[in-house]
Amino acid sequence: MTLIKKVALPLLISSALWSQFSAAAPVNYAMDSAHTSVVASWTHFGFSHPTADLSGVTGNIDFDAAKVSDSKVDVTIPLNSIDTHVDKLTEEFKGPDYFDATKYPNATFKSTKVVSTGKNTMDVHGDLTIKGITKPVVLHAVLNKQGMHPMVKKEAVGFDATTTFKRSDFKLDKYVPAVSDDVKLTITTEAYAK
User: Fold this and answer.
1) At 92, phi and psi to the nearest 5?
2) Which of 46, 63, 137, 167 is most buried, taking the most CB atoms under 10 A from its CB?
3) Residues linked to residue 141 through DSSP beta bridges, in sequence order
4) Distances (CA, A) of 132 to 76, 100, 101, 127, 172
């Protein structure tokens, strides 16, 4: 065997193996609803900042720490889960003046690109859909931890994220501007490798 063949063959094998591993680098994680929460907050006539919780969130996260730009997020939020901690307001939010949860049962977020902004931080650009209306938003995310989860015995990731959107963009504009148009979302999640 010539010297070229001796050198080229291992290089070709290494290259083939590397391309397989690099192509499979993003890990697919399923979000754990029990450890995922979405909290919305707004300004109420300038006096206070009430909150509403959304639960039962499901979704997938494809995450590659080595190449964050290859990551993806796809999330579904059941709007009937909204809880303002004030019964009358919760029912109003579920009704036609706000989310109309019977007609539009879910809000969704699907990423369009992920951009690294520093060590363990990234901006997740994507499309937020509420009441059949889709608008671009950016989630400012922090990777809390990645590794083996001690309880579920699977690879896991955990993120926190925030974003702000205008509710009038989604026809949720009752009482604007006395009650703020801007709504802040604060998100935390754990997700486990499939």
Assistant:
1) -65, -40
2) 63
3) 122, 161
4) 13, 11, 11, 12, 12
Q: Which tens digits make up the pLDDT trace of 18-38?
A: 444 445 578 999 999 999 999
Can you tell me the distance from the alpha carbon of 118 to that of 165, in angstroms, rounded to the nearest whole number? 23
Q: Are 158 and 149 in contact (CB under 8 A)?
A: no
Q: Residue 123, exposed/middle/buried by CB under 10 A (0-12, 13-18, 19+)?
A: middle
Q: Domain 26-193 adopts which CATH fold?
A: Lipocalin (2.40.128)
pLDDT band, residue 2 (cuts 50/70/90): low
* Rounded alpha-carbon distances, angstroms, from residue 190 to 14, 29, 46, 61, 144: 35, 9, 34, 10, 9
> What type of residue is 56?
G
Contact indicator for 77, 62 with CB cutoff of 8 Å: no
Cα angle value 97/99/105 (rounded, 5°):
140
One-letter amino acid at 99 equals F
3-state secondary structure string across 115-157: EEEECCEEEEEEEEEECCEEEEEEEEEEEEEEEECCCCCCEEE
For the chain, the domains span 26-193
For 61-88, the pLDDT digits (tens) are 999 999 999 999 999 999 999 999 999 9
